[in-house]
């Protein structure tokens, strides 16, 4: 496994040249810029887990949100859960509040099909690709408490810090995914 590397520079906005970035990542920058949402960016090598994000969080000055892509047993209902990265996930706590059957991780194929991302790159910004609203957005209320929200731009080699007020007031309405709020 390659050693994790982090560019110590915090950038304002998109990269000056997106030609080496994925189309999904570039679409995130286009979306945010089109809404006029300011953001700061940290570039780094792949962050395959929330634990690998600690140095990125220190640079950003914001906690990177844990994003779990879940489904029901029949794989007919899909959920994107946003929760604090340091909070443990217990399925029964979520299903009880949503009133649904036991949920499990959805897997790579539906993740790519519905969100256009690969494992490790799941983000609320992936909902840009869910134009048919097949994914139900669920947000732990604790995610909304800090001043800033951090996530990947659909690729886990960059992380963005966005004002939480912009997430709730501009980004979520533009994504057209009305969230369900839970307390985990």
Automatic annotation (TrEMBL):
Which InterPro entries does the entry link to?
Answer: ProX/PRXD1, YbaK/aa-tRNA-synt-asso_dom_sf, YbaK/aa-tRNA-synth-assoc-dom
Domain named YbaK/aminoacyl-tRNA synthetase-associated: residues: 44-167
Pfam families attached here? tRNA_edit (PF04073)
Top-level taxon of the source organism: Bacteria
* Gene3D superfamilies assigned: YbaK/aminoacyl-tRNA synthetase-associated domain (3.90.960.10)
Q: Which SUPFAM superfamilies match?
A: YbaK/ProRS associated domain
Q: Name one GO molecular function term.
A: aminoacyl-tRNA deacylase activity
Q: Which family does it belong to?
A: Belongs to the PRORSD1 family.
Q: Which protein are we looking at?
A: Prolyl-tRNA synthetase associated domain-containing protein
Taxonomy of the source species: Bacteria, Bacillati, Bacillota, Clostridia, Eubacteriales
